[in-house]
Write a structure and sequence with these properties.
Elements: E1 4-10, H1 18-29, E2 34-38, H2 57-67, E3 71-75, H3 85-95, E4 108-114, H4 121-133, E5 145-147, H5 162-185
Parallel strand pairs: 1-2, 1-3, 3-4, 4-5
Helix pairs in contact: 1-5, 2-3
């Protein structure tokens, strides 16, 4: 059986993040053909085009990790009805310099947990706009807006509540199938500007 390398982002920097718990839970119920590695974001400076001529080590490591991934999974909270700043900064690093968008053609999934009832729905909507611009195919269904209940999970991320486990397992099964469909359809190559517009480079 083929295996697929999935890079995942946790959108919160908090050590006790409920989305980090969710990431462990998703990995625990994922199909065996998916192999996971976290793409770290906490050491990235704020992106500026001043770095484009010579990326710092954290920026190069992030782009290398994305390039080495067959698919990308975003597991993130919602801050102020949008994408957390640290995650958006990481996405900006991964898409630059102009013409070297590391997310192009990478099959992506978006999921997030929140204590509230709408469970990161607005953040996910914002993410879809960003990923569409980056030419990153997205798993559109099933949508997964997780209302977090601490007693549904063990400390190691395993899921104690069978209803929650079934929901997360179904999401990961669908994501695995989506990754395989996208990779089978993709022709070799990379989408990006071969001759960047100089006006874009100063944004």
């Amino acid at each position: 059986m083929d295996t697929f390398k999935i890079g995942y982002f946790v959108g919160s920097l908090a050590s006790n993040s409920i989305n980090r718990v969710l990431s462990k839970a998703l990995i625990s119920v994922a199909p065996a053909e998916l192999e996971f590695h976290e793409i770290a974001i906490k050491d990235l400076p704020l992106y500026s085009s001043d770095y484009d001529a010579d990326f710092p080590p954290a920026g190069r490591e992030l782009k290398d990790a994305i390039a080495a991934s067959d698919g990308i999974l975003f597991i993130s909270p919602e801050y102020n009805r949008s994408i957390p700043g640290a995650l958006k900064n990481a996405i900006d690093w991964g898409s630059r310099p102009w013409g070297t968008n590391s997310f192009a053609r990478k099959p992506t999934g978006i999921i997030g947990a929140s204590p509230g009832g709408i469970g990161t729905a607005v953040m996910q909507s914002s993410m879809r706009s960003v990923l569409s611009f980056l030419d990153a195919p997205q798993l559109n269904a099933p949508e997964a807006y997780i209302r977090f209940a601490a007693d549904a999970y063990d400390d190691d991320g395993s899921v104690k509540d069978e209803g929650t486990a079934a929901l997360l397992r179904h999401y990961m099964e669908e994501y695995s199938a989506f990754v395989q469909r996208v990779l089978a359809a993709n022709a070799p190559g990379h989408i990006g500007d071969q001759e960047p517009d100089s006006a874009k480079l100063t944004r």
